[in-house]
Write a structure and sequence with these properties.
It is built from five helices and four strands. By secondary structure, the chain is α+β, with helices and mostly antiparallel strands. A hairpin with a 5-residue loop joins β2 and β3.
């Protein structure tokens, strides 16, 4: 027996896709902050709430100065000390699926992370690279001694 579907049923069937991880940028940011804190990695972050407050309350000159100095800054700038004088830095821009860098964000050489799994992989690789650089610096120091 042939089964007939209404047009509405067909539309519903077509719209079914693989499950998508629906996550907001703020949830992604919270997960990254927790991850950085767990690894005890220092980072600089200017929360969006600061920018929103400045736009509502600060004089135009202050907003312009802040925007010129820090506009487009990545969501997190991470720092791992690799010697007494130097730190290895990583700039991370968080973007949910379908969003791209815009405006001044394009000028920063930052790594884009879109999912919690990408955050984890990115930080694990960053820590691994920092350990390699530390080891190289220690070898150079021994060699020079």
């Amino acid at each position: 027996m042939h089964k007939t579907y209404f047009k509405e049923d067909m539309r519903k069937r077509r719209k079914r896709k693989a499950p998508v991880l629906d996550i907001t940028e703020s949830q992604l940011q919270e997960q990254l902050n927790d991850l950085l804190n767990a690894y005890q990695i220092r980072y600089i972050r200017i929360p969006d709430s600061i920018w929103h407050w400045l736009k509502r309350n600060a004089p135009v000159e202050v907003i312009k100065a802040m925007s010129d100095a820090l506009g487009g800054m990545p969501d997190n700038v991470c720092m791992i000390p690799i010697s007494d004088r130097y730190s290895l830095m990583l700039a991370i821009e968080l973007k949910v699926k379908g969003r791209k860098k815009r405006g001044k964000q394009k000028h920063w050489q930052s790594t884009i992370s879109r999912t919690p799994d990408e955050n984890i992989a990115l930080i694990e690789e960053y820590v691994k690279q920092a350990d390699i650089v530390k080891e190289i610096l220690e070898r150079v120091k021994e060699y020079e001694s």
